[in-house]
């Protein structure tokens, strides 16, 4: 299968390039970067920092390369992801989207597009984080209604969105386990909020240095607390999942698939 990688200079795009180039089931046919970058026209292997050419060029106009591809892997920005989505719709190509921070309206555009093209949307493409969702469901069902739930996430200083896409998904898992709507129980910041309401979910975002990704969900009771934590030491676990998702999409019918479909997590 032929793939295009968006943002090959980025943290995720460069790792996805490295991992995809070592797989035997996929071939990178192009990269896409923003207009005006000095690396446009160069080989993606050089742009991504791999130090060897892969015989695929980074372009700034997806229209010029999209027809050579089967799947586009996109971990970039919300604005650029919307452009990729429109291009993929026009050319009927599959998309793996791992970008986070979409508005509700933008996410509805992804859902609409998935009626015509196959899409994997994954706010977190690590297998282990998706296993953590299962642990959260068990904990929330058992003690969620009687605990003070806090989601504490840490990322690098450059991350654009807060709270992280993963922490929103974690909140959603917990809200579903409690038969509640996340919007009714999520609390962003505690200033002026008064006493803690059991069963509500407090969100806390830390941005510092080069922390790659860390999520802790704390279920606080009187005299004890349970913490479930995932730490990523680098972004490779997410990039592995991105390539798995691309392989999964090859030949799939239109639809909105999740990383659980890809990784076969019940
Ligand atoms: N789903 C998951 O598991 C994960 C999701 N993410 C999400 O992925 C996204 C990217 O994260 P990260 O790699 O850390 O970010 P980076 O800032 O490192 O990379 C973003 C890339 O997008 C490129 N880009 C920006 N605008 C355009 C455009 N108009 N056209 C083409 N390329 C563009 C940038 O180009 P340039 O380098 O030239 O500026 C850059 O290479 C974020 O939303 C993040 O939250 C991150 C990790 C895991
Ligand atoms: O920007 C990141 O780094 C990450 N973003 C995703 C998110 O917003 O949850 C996934 C992971 O935490 C890394």
TrEMBL record:
One of its GO terms (molecular function) is oxidoreductase activity, acting on CH or CH2 groups, NAD or NADP as acceptor. It catalyses: (S)-2,3,4,5-tetrahydrodipicolinate + NAD(+) + H2O = (2S,4S)-4-hydroxy-2,3,4,5-tetrahydrodipicolinate + NADH + H(+); (S)-2,3,4,5-tetrahydrodipicolinate + NADP(+) + H2O = (2S,4S)-4-hydroxy-2,3,4,5-tetrahydrodipicolinate + NADPH + H(+). Pathway: Amino-acid biosynthesis; L-lysine biosynthesis via DAP pathway; (S)-tetrahydrodipicolinate from L-aspartate: step 4/4. Residues 129-263 form the Dihydrodipicolinate reductase C-terminal domain. (S)-2,3,4,5-tetrahydrodipicolinate binds at residues 165-166. Residues 1-124 form the Dihydrodipicolinate reductase N-terminal domain. GO terms for cellular component: cytosol. Its main location: cytoplasm. Keywords: Amino-acid biosynthesis, Cytoplasm, Diaminopimelate biosynthesis, Lysine biosynthesis, NAD, NADP, Oxidoreductase. NADP(+) binds at residue 37. The active site is at 155 (proton donor/acceptor), 159 (proton donor). GO terms for biological process: diaminopimelate biosynthetic process; lysine biosynthetic process via diaminopimelate. InterPro entries: DapB_C (IPR022663), DapB_N (IPR000846), DapB_N_CS (IPR022664), DHDPR_bac (IPR023940), NAD(P)-bd_dom_sf (IPR036291). Homotetramer. Catalyzes the conversion of 4-hydroxy-tetrahydrodipicolinate (HTPA) to tetrahydrodipicolinate. PANTHER family: 4-HYDROXY-TETRAHYDRODIPICOLINATE REDUCTASE 1, CHLOROPLASTIC-RELATED, DIHYDRODIPICOLINATE REDUCTASE. Belongs to the DapB family. This is 4-hydroxy-tetrahydrodipicolinate reductase. It comes from Lutispora thermophila DSM 19022. The lineage of its organism: Bacteria, Bacillati, Bacillota, Clostridia, Lutisporales.
